[in-house]
Amino acid sequence: MRQTDAVAGALTRLIRDPVHGYVEVPPELDPLVRSAAVQRLRTIRQNSLAVVQFPSMTGSRYEHALGAMHLAVRAWHGCWHNRMPAAEGVDTSSTWDGFRTSVIGDLQRAAAFGAELDPVTRRLIDAPPGKPERTALWTSFEHVIGLALGAVGLLHDVGHPPFSHVLEPFYLRNSEQILGADRHAGFSRYAADAADRVQFHEWAGLAIFDAMPQATFRSVPRYLIRRILADRSGHGWAGCLHSVLDGQFDVDRLDFLCRDAAGAGTEFGNLDVTNLLRNLELHRTGPQDWRIGLGAQALSSFETMLLQRAQHYRWVVQHHMVVAADAAVARAVTALFTLSCGAEAVPALRDLAPDLDYLTYASASGGDRACVDDPGVLSWLRAARPVLASMAADESPAGEQAQATLALIRVFDSMSIMPIPAWRDYHEYVARIEQVAIASRIGVNTSANGTP
Q: Are 268 and 257 spatial neighbours (Cβ–Cβ below 8 Å)?
């Protein structure tokens, strides 16, 4: 650990990381790292059940969150030092002052119209109207925005349910029953307002963020962080900064490509991280519009990243053994939930049913029956096996469903999977992947190997 001047008397934590060497946790972000929302990610696997084929892919979303935080801060500093002149005919002021003026002016207008700003944000923008250069944010802009982007990197995945993307459709279908009518209505409003794709974990992440205790944000501007975290438009200063985490090139993908490659033991992931981050550029594209993009010197590194990303998804994420295991756990959870909580629930299974509301747990601390991570879900499924075995002896629809659920549990619990191949040659494989991609965009729940 080393001394820093950012927070009086505080120390910067150094965390040893197998991908980046060391990850620095600024003292201002340390309370966020230690929060229940982020610590829960220790027991959420980054790649669900990819371990059935790649035994070393045991990394968690906690590791990925730390890596995304680390890369986001580096990306911002590289971007800020590569600010480009304003576009001809757009504005004569410099990109430096223009971007700062845009951010500070927008925050001051929000305060004037009654937005509930946290104390840190208010202190940073406190100045007479029309005098952005007299604010504390003006003089500490690079540092503060770096902290905000680091916080967004740290928090961008806190909304993931157990088994991440695998159980996201399950939570989407059963959100009202699991999370309650109010949260279900909140998600419906969020989905209606979204301009493009809607992912359940993104809304859940914002809900968890809003419920986190204010003490966690005692040294960082909470309102500013939320503006960046929530803005997926790609326009304006907040959307521009959000694109560092979610854009054509972003540190989210950069971290998990490197991290997954190391865990899978593949040749993918040999990316020039330093060259990519040092060549990000901030451009002004309109009076209040901004873009962050890669400069010409990083194009070859970006091409390599795109190629390896496609290879990674094709041969690792969508490996047929991995897809089969993920499908098994998703179907087993759905079946057991139906038997435990449906209209014709089995009393013995109802008694075993845990609290699946991970949003409440992540914002504070849950009870003994909270099932909020991968081990919790596995424990629930395993605890139900004796009851399912007893039910399977009956020749009835419920008995057949119990027997099928037991078979699904054995598939992923034993880590010994012998699925029927989903394709016979490369062209059939590509066609199947395209079919899955189309189905996911229109919300169709399709199995990975084409079976009903």
A: yes
Element (H, E) at 11: strand 11-17
Nearest to 362 by CA among 198, 155, 182, 168: 155
Task: Report helix, strand or coil for 221.
Answer: coil
Residue 4's pLDDT band (cuts 50, 70, 90): very low
pLDDT tens digit string along 277-318? Answer: 999 999 888 888 999 999 999 999 999 999 999 889 888 888
**Long-range contacts, 331-337 (Cβ 8 Å, 24+):** 331/408, 332/381, 332/405, 332/408, 332/409, 332/412, 333/167, 333/170, 333/377, 333/381, 334/170, 335/401, 335/404, 335/405, 335/408, 336/380, 336/381, 336/384, 336/388, 336/405, 337/170, 337/174
pLDDT band at 23 (very low <50, low <70, confident <90, very high): very high
| Residue linked to tokens 């991440």 | 164
Distance CA 297, CA 340 (A): 57
Q: Under 8 Å CB-to-CB from 422, ≥6 apart: which residues?
A: 320, 323, 429, 432, 448, 449, 450
Can you give the three-state secondary structure of 370-407, one letter per residue?
Answer: ECCCHHHHHHHHHHCHHHHHHHHCCCCHHHHHHHHHHH
| Helical segments of 21-135, H only | 30-33, 36-39, 61-80, 95-112, 119-125
Three-class secondary structure of residue 212 per DSSP: coil
pLDDT of 93 reads 52
Question: Could you say which DSSP state residue 313 is in?
Answer: I
